[in-house]
Amino acid sequence: MADSSEMTINLVVLGRSQTGKSAAGNSLLGSSDFESHCSPSSVTTCCSLGSSCRISRIIRRNGCELALRVQVLDTPSYPHSGLSKEQVKDTVRSALAHHFGEEGLHLALLVLRADLPLCPDESNHTTQFMQELLGPTWKDFTAVLLTHADKTEEAGFSEEEYLQSASSTLLSLLSSVQHKYIFLDNQKSIIKEERAIVLRKLLNFVRQNNYQVLLLKHRKE
Fold it and tell me: Could you read off the pLDDT of 18-62 as tens digits, one per residue?
């Protein structure tokens, strides 16, 4: 029986190699569940699920305070140095169906590096992959995580100044997902207060979508 005093949000991190997907997942969980390090090849080769402990004083629904539990599915990158696009899609679809088949997916987190420009070809390939993976409503269930935000701060950009200077390609992508985005410095250990701020933002995105979930069934091509 579901615990009425607890809410679980199910997340999946998606993106290119060396964008900080796995590190972002660790930051959200407050753990080191996922392997993450600099490498000349793609580090993550299979999906793995991490789950946080119960987190108090984060969310209230219907006037009641609920504990929060976060589940994050880490995934192989696309493009991948050792797997084809179809292999990545099949691996991720299977894991989504296995782990979130009944509860559903609340948010897919598309991880991009804030310190690198988003080019049109990369954006087109990424959005096509997201649509093929999650279906036609993918934009309603997707938020953008802009990692390596410390590099933009070192360059003297505030978040507002960064977005004012951003490429039209990035701004168009952010607009397509209803401006659901978060800046994240995952080069250092995120402190408890910063993690709570990020989780509240994610919960707000889920709330904006009326707590809907995306139900995914594995399909063999």
Answer: 898 999 999 999 888 898 878 777 878 899 999 998 888 788 777
Q: What is the pLDDT of residues 137-148, one digit of tens each?
A: 999 999 999 999
Contact between 89 and 132 (Cβ < 8 Å):
yes
Residue 12 pLDDT greater than 90, yes or no: yes
CA dihedral 160, 211, 140, 197 (to 10 degrees): 20
The type of residue at 93 is R
- The Cα 129–Cα 203 span in angstroms is 25
pLDDT over threshold 80, residue 6: yes
**What pLDDT does residue 1 have?**
41
Tokens 């009641």 map to which residue? 64
β-bridge mates for residue 211, sequence order: none
Distance CA 23, CA 109 (A): 13
